[in-house]
From TrEMBL:
It holds the Pfam family Amidohydro_1. Binds 1 zinc or iron ion per subunit. Belongs to the metallo-dependent hydrolases superfamily. HutI family. N-formimidoyl-L-glutamate binds at residues 155, 331, 333. Its main location: cytoplasm. It comes from the Bacteria. Catalyzes the hydrolytic cleavage of the carbon-nitrogen bond in imidazolone-5-propanoate to yield N-formimidoyl-L-glutamate. It is the third step in the universal histidine degradation pathway. This is Imidazolonepropionase. It is an enzyme of class 3 (hydrolase). Zn(2+) binds at residues 83, 85, 253, 329. Fe(3+) binds at residues 83, 85, 253, 329. Its cofactor is Zn(2+); Fe(3+). Keywords: Cytoplasm, Histidine metabolism, Hydrolase, Iron, Metal-binding, Zinc.
């Protein structure tokens, strides 16, 4: 072993799911807890970890450049937020009163508000303005302990404006500590110019947007808002299959409001993940389990929309043995929060997930929802040294003591991101 760049000692509890692959069903509860632990890092990767005496023994006669003592705090893999609408212009607090008076999310959209209102602000904003706003959000996420996120386009809805959003995401990935994985979501809503002509808009997505996104290498994934009154199952299938021809891996906003068959479609085409799923049927969940589709649950969205329904996380874990992931869904409409720790609390409160399941959902399962299970999402030798340090004695403390930020520090790629 060559020299060590950073040795982290004084870890009261090191808590991580094991391995690289998605953790399904009951496996989600099985996390490794190492007391009085240490982690050694070289060139941004984990070289060794375990009980401190063991690690020190392994490092005998090896030069250590820097040692940091985290004072008995808890450490987990860096948190991963696999579903965000990071890059957008403006905000939608003007819709709050409408929402609170009971007007539904889809009705606001049908009246030209909702997503379409953010489309206007995003089109009007310069790349510099979009960059600055999103950069602030990334700072907030990093402070919460997040080291990798996904970011979707879908507020441009024209060839040029979709590319603009994706270019900004790429620039943010280059400039910010957090890694950003991009998803093309031109099929997020039907723009006003195509009102009543959804098929024509689907053609635009397929024949003009997808080739450009692929040509410029601006996204890894393709997503569609498959929902009653937005894009049908058939239209979603066409877009996602064409996207795959261009090398974009399919994802899906599925069965959020109505049981349209999005979960079934995700299974049928072997999507990497299906997201929301409040209204998914058992048949749909079974299809997802059969084809290894990861459910990404967004409890902040049902909370913020004031719904009394929630995704059936317990059935997904206990009956269908699915590998549940969690995410903020950060966006200016249905879930304006960057706080993954609020999501952890809501997953406990409303989805009845245990602290261990929540950690697995925010680390290794989230990593796999982004096709990065081999690189991030768990503390394993050879993986990226992305670590979050908390001012908390144990895992259950995170959803228990709510409304505050427990993160004490973040290591990203072996370097201090926040302290
Ligand atoms: O995941 N459901 C569709 N898209 C986003 C909301 C976008 C918005 O309202 O601006 C979501 O909830
Ligand atoms: Fe979303």
């Amino acid at each position: 072993m060559e020299r060590i760049d950073l040795l982290m000692i004084g870890i009261g509890q090191l808590v991580t799911p094991p391995g690289n692959v998605p953790r399904c069903g009951q496996q989600m509860k099985e996390v490794q807890v190492i007391k009085d632990a240490a982690v050694a890092i070289r060139e941004g990767r984990i070289v060794t970890f375990g009980p401190v005496e063991l690690v020190l023994e392994r490092l005998t006669d090896i030069e250590v450049a820097a040692i940091v003592d985290v004072g008995g705090r808890m450490v987990t893999p860096g948190l991963i937020d696999p579903h965000t609408h990071l890059v957008h212009g403006g905000s939608r607090e003007h819709e709050l009163a409408l929402k609170r008076s009971g007007v539904s999310y889809l009705d606001i959209l049908a009246q030209g508000g909702g997503i379409l209102s953010t489309v206007q602000s995003t089109r009007a904003a310069s790349e510099q303005e979009l960059f600055t706003k999103a950069y602030r959000s990334l700072d907030e996420m990093l402070l919460q302990g997040v080291t990798t996120i996904e970011a979707k386009s879908g507020y441009g809805l024209s060839v040029e404006d979709e590319l603009k959003q994706l270019r900004v995401a790429k620039q943010l990935n280059d400039m910010h500590t957090i890694d950003i994985v991009s998803t093309f979501m031109g099929a997020h809503a039907v723009p006003l110019a195509y009102k009543g002509r959804t098929e024509d808009y689907v053609d635009l997505v397929i024949h003009e947007m997808l080739p450009m996104v692929a040509e410029h290498g601006l996204a890894e994934f393709c997503d569609v808002f498959c929902e009653h009154g937005v894009f049908s199952v058939e239209q979603s299938r066409r877009i996602l299959l064409k996207g795959r021809e261009y090398g974009l891996i399919p994802k899906l906003h599925a069965d959020e409001i109505q049981p349209l068959g999005g979960a079934e479609l995700a299974g049928e085409i072997g999507a990497i993940s299906a997201e929301h799923l409040l209204a998914a049927t058992d048949k749909g969940l079974a299809a997802m389990a059969e084809h290894g589709v990861i459910p990404v649950l967004l409890p902040g969205t049902s909370f913020n929309l004031g719904l009394d329904r929630h995704a059936r996380a317990r059935d997904m874990i206990d009956i269908h043995e699915l590998p549940v992931a969690l995410s903020t869904d950060y966006n200016p409409g249905s879930c304006p929060t960057e706080s993954i720790q609020l999501i952890m609390m809501l997953a406990s409160l409303n989805l009845k997930m245990t602290p261990e399941e929540i950690l697995t959902a925010c680390t290794i399962n989230a990593a796999n929802a982004l096709g990065r299970g081999h690189e991030i999402g768990s503390i394993e030798i050879g993986k990226r040294a992305d670590l979050t340090i908390y001012d908390a004695p144990n895992l259950a403390y995170l959803p228990y003591h709510f409304g505050v930020n427990h993160t004490f520090g973040v290591i990203k790629n072996g370097k201090v991101g926040v302290w």
